[in-house]
Amino acid sequence: MIQVQLKLRLRPAQERQLERWLYRLTGVWNWAIRKLEQDGNGGVRYSLFDFKALLYKHSTRVGMAAKALSGMAAQAHTAYGRYRDGIARRPRLKGRRNRLNSIPIDEGREVRGQSIRIPVLGVVRFHKQEIPDGHIGQMRLVKRASGWYLCLFIHADPRAVPALLDGEVGIDSGFTNLLTTSSGETIEHPRELEAAAVRLAQAQRGKRANLAARINERIGNQHRNRNHHVSRRLVSENHLIAWSKDRTKNIARKFGKSVSSSSHYQLRSMLAYKSRIGGREYIEVDSRNSTRTCSACGALTGPTGWHGLKVRFWDCGACGAHHERDVNAAQNTLKIGLRTSHERRREASSGISMIQDRDVRPRETRDRFQEPR
Ligand SMILES: [Zn+2]
């Protein structure tokens, strides 16, 4: 499945029409959630088909695409179902503070050249972009600060990143640098993001909500672009990538913006899927003791605690090796990653899973805890 986003070139009338749809669909969403809740309390459960049928002929009354209405109903049905099954939180109602900003279209259409036909809205043009071949499964119209986009979900296999080198790398995710690799390379936070943060603060102080939204969107785009570049290069150069998984929540709480803004989560998921498609191995390793351990002799002689975060260089008290703090941590990560990879391969060849063996409780007790909620 590939997701493609097209920037639309709407006529003013089409844009006004979409704004009206958003308003209508906000009502539909809220109605759907309340309906599912109240009828659910009364013991009535709708199948998706029956629930969509409640909106039969509603589209002609409100003058919008039936596919958008049924798409919205399906979305609410799924969201509420996930809440009822205890998988997700209760879906929030939409309104001024929690705006609806996307319109699902229940069914994909064929793209012809630089335009696409959307029911009721008509032919919509978009900025030229390469679209991969494949059946379009679903569509979604998304409103962003910079305008309207069309999201296509295409049934096709993404292309693998070409393998250039056959290295192996350990990565320590820091906060002063974005990343430090076991070979001693540091990848820094790009400067333009800091400049954008200054402009964002100015816009927020000036209470210019639209400008702030535009800058925020731009920062997000820059992050994504940077993460795509970094992950592509790492996957093309290494057959094994080990990532030290921090308990980032604690650190973010202590340090605020700088950690959450480094968007490690996105980078990790990119590394994971690019590795999977390219036939590379991606392993996440617990970061515990990765800074404390000396990568030369294995003694726990390194800096510790919040105080130790200031220490950039240190000497091992046991073997005398000189370390740069983050490079040492990345080298430890690579070591653990190599060990994990080796263990996995051995398990795969012997056909026994270590993970199952670790559960020492008797079978009956184990099953009792696995009952569905
Ligand atoms: Zn040492």
Key phrases:
single chain, alpha+beta, 14 strands, 5-stranded mixed beta sheet, 7-stranded antiparallel beta sheet, disordered C terminus, binds zinc ion, 373 residues, 45% helix, elongated
Folded structure, characterized:
This protein has 373 residues and is an alpha+beta fold. 45% of the residues lie in helices and 20% in strands. The chain has helices at residues 12-41, 48-53, 58-62, 66-84, 191-205, 209-237, 248-255, 257-260, 264-278, 325-350, 354-358, 363-369; strands at 2-9, 102-105, 111-112, 115-118, 122-126, 135-144, 147-155, 167-173, 179-181, 186-187, 238-245, 281-286, 313-315, 322-324. The strands form three sheets. Strands 2-6-7-1-5-4-3 form a seven-stranded antiparallel beta sheet. The protein has a five-stranded mixed beta sheet with strand order 10-9-8-11-12. A hairpin with a 6-residue loop joins strand 13 (313-315) and strand 14. Helix 1 runs parallel beside helix 4, helix 5 runs antiparallel to helix 6 and helix 6 runs parallel beside helix 9 (264-278). The model is unreliable at 355-373 (pLDDT under 50).
